[in-house]
Amino acid sequence: MAQIQELRVLCFGASITAGLYNFGIQHHPYATRLKSRLKASLPLHYVQVEVDGLSGDHVIKGEYLSRLKPHFDATAGKGEKLDWLIFQGGGNDLMWGEEPAAIFEAMQKLWQISLQGGTKVMALTVTDTEDQRPQTRESYRKLNDMIISHQDKNFFVADLFSKIPYAGMSQETRKIVWDDGLHFKPAGYDMIGDAVADRLLEIIGAACIS
Question: Does pTM top 0.85 for this prediction?
Answer without folding.
Answer: yes
